Task: structure prediction
Amino acid sequence: MERKSFIVYLDLLDSLDELSDAQAGKLFKTIKAYHRSVAEGATQECAANLESLLKDFVNRLAFAPFRAAFERDAEKYQDRCRRMKENGMKGGRPKSKKSNCFSESQNKPNGFSENQKVQKKADNDNVNDNDIKKKNGKEKPAHTLFPEPDSNPEYARFVAWVRDNAPYCYDPSNWRTGITAAQFEALREKHGYTSNQIALTVAEIDNRKDLRGKYTNLYLTVLKWLGRNGKE
Result:
């Protein structure tokens, strides 16, 4: 079933504060091009248009959290359509069973900005402190990647943003080393990157399912990607 609309969460719009009017306009053209490219009957021209817009580094970073939210919503929509179809074949939704799905209002991603307050709860789609995946039969503690998140308010906001918007990067079973508060400050003070740039780069890594699995050190990966993007 083809979708006729999509959701833009208010929290994601915080990233517009970091963009010029021209950059914001390009971002919304990119949002349009993305949905044209994933719609039924999309042409190669639609995909080429999106690819052209994403060659711009700033635009690609700004679009990353929007894309992550769109993909999560699309997966939930397809899953809901599948369940409705299955229930229809069975004569309707079973009355004796309760759905395990949370409402969409509980799954809104949060954009990262300098004025963002720390979120206290993770989205259902994301990994939280009580639901860490197991790897090789061993469960790792929740904060091995981001130790002492309360030691620095800005670092705490960053950790909350990663938790809510980059579930793969937040999951300690996917990395040997994460980003400490000291390393986060080094990215900001020593290397000169903003909190927004760091967060959006983490989101970009999280979205690259074809590449992210070969990395083990989140801090070095973010530093490398920031340096690579900064040269474009």
Observations:
- The radius of gyration is 19 Å.
- The longest strand covers residues 134-135.
- Strands lie at 134-135, 138-139.
- DSSP finds eight helices and two strands in the chain.
